[in-house]
Structure formats: C-alpha cells, structure tokens
C-alpha cells in the first residue's frame, strides 16, 4: 500500500472499543512543545496521536501504529486494573514505559513476520 493510503487507513480509525469502552482517537494531534507522540486519558476515553515528532518530521506509518497500540495497552492496563505500565514512582514508570515500547516493537514485528497471525485475529472478529 502507498504511504497516503496507509495514512488514510490510520485516519479512518475514529473510535476503538476497548474493554467495553468507546475510546475516541484524535489524530493528528498537535502536542505543541510537549515532547511526545501519543497519550491517553482513560477517564475521558481519549487517545491522542501526533502527526509529527518533536523535531517536526511526519511520523511513519510504523510509528503511528506503534504509538496507537502503546496507548491501547495503557487502556487495557487501566481496564484490567493491573498497573503493568504505570507506577507511583517516576523512575519505575519510565522503565515500564520503555518495556511497553519494546513489547510493541516486538509485537508489531511478530505480525509483520507472520501475517497469518493477523488473519487469525480477523477471523475472531468475523465470527458469528
Ligand atoms: Zn505510555
């Protein structure tokens, strides 16, 4: 698929159903001076994903998908009340955030290397 088509594919996701909650996806969101490419607000049911990184470069499709999944995992963590990726301690939270990024990268590579796994997931959503 071409880059523009991939961006449109991403833009088409306006909401996600996560753990029974309807979560609004705001993309592209301008974080201004904040140095981040995504965040989530579980109370408000909102995920925001930047169109550009801190240096002003347009985010690649891979980075967009990774950023979205990263935030989705925060919601899942919140929904199952496990605090897998957050902590009262800032250093511990930073380490958990790094762990989440590593997990996302590995997970995306798994699906890239094994497209049939993605087909299995699609099969679940098409089940009647
Ligand atoms: Zn995070």
Structure overview:
The protein is of the alpha+beta class and 128 residues long. The protein has one domain. It has helices spanning 3-11, 61-79, 90-113, 115-126, and strands at 15-18, 21-29, 38-41, 46-50. It has a 4-stranded mixed β-sheet, covered by helices on one side. A hairpin with a 2-residue loop joins strand 1 (15-18) and strand 2 (21-29). Zinc ion is lined by residues 70, 74, 97, 100.
Question: Which SSEs are present, and which pair or pack?
Answer:
Layout: H1 3-11, E1 15-18, E2 21-29, E3 38-41, E4 46-50, H2 61-79, H3 90-113, H4 115-126
Parallel strand pairs: 2-4
Antiparallel strand pairs: 1-2, 3-4
The structure holds zinc ion (ZN).
Q: What attributes characterize this protein structure?
A:
single chain, binds zinc ion, 4 strands, four-stranded mixed β-sheet, 17% strand
In short:
The chain has 128 residues and is an alpha+beta fold. Helices cover 50% and strands 17% of the residues. It is built from four helices and four strands; from the N terminus they run αββββααα.
The SSE order reads HEEEEHHH
What Rg, in angstroms, do the CA atoms define? 15 Å
Chain-averaged pLDDT: 93
pLDDT under 50 segments (min length 5)? none
Helix content: 40-55%
Q: Counting H and I runs of at least 4 residues, what is the number of helices?
A: 4
Which class best fits the helix and strand makeup?
alpha+beta
Which hetero compounds are present in the coordinates?
zinc ion
Number of domains: 1
Largest sheet: 4 strands, mixed
**Spatial order of strands in the largest sheet:** 1-2-4-3
Shape: globular
């Amino acid at each position: 698929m071409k880059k523009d088509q991939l961006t449109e594919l991403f833009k088409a996701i306006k909401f996600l159903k996560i753990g029974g909650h309807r979560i609004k996806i705001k993309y592209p969101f301008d974080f201004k001076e904040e140095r981040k490419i995504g965040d989530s607000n579980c109370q408000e049911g909102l995920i925001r994903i930047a169109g550009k990184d801190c240096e002003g470069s347009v985010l690649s499709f891979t980075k967009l998908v990774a950023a979205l999944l990263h935030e989705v995992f925060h919601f899942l963590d919140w929904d199952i009340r496990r605090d897998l990726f957050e902590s009262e301690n800032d250093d511990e939270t930073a380490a958990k955030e790094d762990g989440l990024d590593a997990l996302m990268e590995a997970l995306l590579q798994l699906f890239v290397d094994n497209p049939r796994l993605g087909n299995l997931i699609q099969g679940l959503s098409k089940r009647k």
